Amino acid sequence: MNISILNQTLALFPDKSVLLPDGTLIVADLHLGKATAFQAKGLAIPEGDSDADLKRLGTICEQVGATRILINGDLFHSPAGHTPEIERLLETWLFTIPVPVQLIIGNHDAKLRRLPAALHPIPFTEAAGFHIVHDPADAPPGRPAICAHWHPVARIADGKRTSLRLPCFLLRDSILVAPSFGTFTGGAIIDRQKGDRVFVAPGDRVIEVPEELLRR
């Protein structure tokens, strides 16, 4: 689905990714190593989510013909999850991916002592007329921006007493907040404001949710 923000156009995909006109593919909040971090605290969380998410990102990159990948924050979950296994997994993936990959530093990434130099980590960047930064609070006012951090989820009425909860893209003023890409991340019901637009992918395409169907 294509949308415009202050005359700048981008495409939203049902796999929780954003594609800019210059071929930049944006995803956010993978939280690699989260299962490992929970295991360190004694919770029997199965492994496999980090590997699957990186493979899925590589597939998407190929499908949309991306020229580069921007990971908009929180590639990693915590120091406890930043294990040698996760590092090797990421190194292998970076070796096989055919386009440049760069990391916008998120609040979870900032907790790590070091970040992989191959990702050229930076606090923000510009691409195709958009300002790209992890936290919406850091987006410049009045300019098209792509953010993340909130893990937005829409609660959509499907009956008098029942509702669906789906990850969503939230467009608020000139800021697009992307859903979390990681499988094991969770989300938060959005605290809607007047004028918000909400987009979800209940199937194989992105659609806009009518305001009257949204619940708090």
Helicity, in percent?
10-25%
CATH architecture: 4-Layer Sandwich
> How far is the first residue's CA from the last residue's CA?
25 Å
Q: What is the domain tally?
A: 1
CATH class placement: Alpha Beta
Estimate the strand proportion.
25-35%
Order of helices and strands: EEEEHHEHEEEEEEEEEEE
CATH topology: Purple Acid Phosphatase, chain A, domain 2
Q: What is the rounded Rg?
A: 17 Å
Low-confidence stretches: none
Average pLDDT for all residues: 92
Number of discrete helical segments:
3
Assign the structural class, choosing from mainly alpha, mainly beta, alpha/beta, alpha+beta, or little secondary structure.
alpha/beta
Largest sheet: 10 strands, mixed
Name the shape in a single word: globular
Can you offer a commentary on this structure?
By secondary structure, the protein is an alpha/beta fold. It has a single domain, classed as 4-Layer Sandwich (Purple Acid Phosphatase, chain A, domain 2), CATH 3.60.21. It is 17% helix and 31% strand. The protein is built from 3 helices and 16 strands. Strands 7, 8, 9, 10, 11, 12, 13, 14, 15 and 16 form a 10-stranded mixed beta sheet that branches.
